[in-house]
Amino acid sequence: MQENELNIPNHVAIILDGNGRWAKKKRMPRNYGHTQGSKNVEKICEKAYKMGIQYLSVYAFSTENWRRPKDEVDALMKLLQTYLETSIKTSTKNNMCVRVIGDRAKLSDDINKSINALEEASKNNTGLKFQVAINYGSRDEILRAVKACAMDVKMNNTEIDHIDEATFEQYLDTKGIPDPDLLIRTSGEQRLSNFLLWQSAYTEFYFTDILWPDFNEKELKKAVEYYSSRTRKFGAIS
Predict the structure, then answer these.
(1) Which residue among the candidates 7, 10, 19, 65 is catalytic per the annotation?
(2) Measured between alpha carbons, how far is 122 from 129 in angstroms, rounded to an integer?
(3) Whether residue 17 lies in the annotated active site
(4) Is residue 76 a part of any domain in this protein?
(5) What is the CATH number of the domain that holds 198?
(6) What pTM does this model have?
(7) Is-catalytic flag, 40?
(8) 146: left (phi over 0), alpha (psi -120 to 50) or beta
(9) What's the total number of domains in the chain?
(10) Cβ atoms within 10 A of the Cβ of 130, count?
(11) HSE-up (13 A, CA, CB side) for residue 138
């Protein structure tokens, strides 16, 4: 199928999985895999926008990732810090608007400063809308949203009878971002792992055995072709 014949998803979400296994296959440390995986993110951002995708969201660090060995977590935090700093230049070059989703309270002051600087520097860019999930877990996001909504009810800022799906979504980290049309997970795993649970109610899922550092434009097109072949019913029963 030619690219101009495809039904291009507006929003694609990706669970970046397989960096450690990729490194192991090459007899390299896990952190080498994470480094190469982070480099691949920029390449896929460029290819996605060129293809016509308007929103791209990636799962960079989950709330559960804190349970990994301390040296791996420390290396990931250092890598995220570097990535956020260099993304100011790349977002400007690629006209990309970057937004970080997740609970920032547990992140270091340095990482939070880098997040704020990146979001401020890229907020007026008109190209790809790129969301990076850091210290993100969907259950945590929903609980935080429920507490914030309940506080507004308690403070008489809103009435409980006026709360519907659209209202509740204003309390989520993804406020103002359309739900993903397509969610891709690399490395052969077939689960959501606490990523965008609310937002993925009618999302199409695509699972591939390709490890994230090897995921390229050709593999992205395969995922979009799969999406394009689907008939989306949005709740209708066939």
Answers:
(1) 65
(2) 10
(3) yes
(4) yes
(5) 3.40.1180.10
(6) 0.94
(7) no
(8) alpha
(9) 1
(10) 25
(11) 12
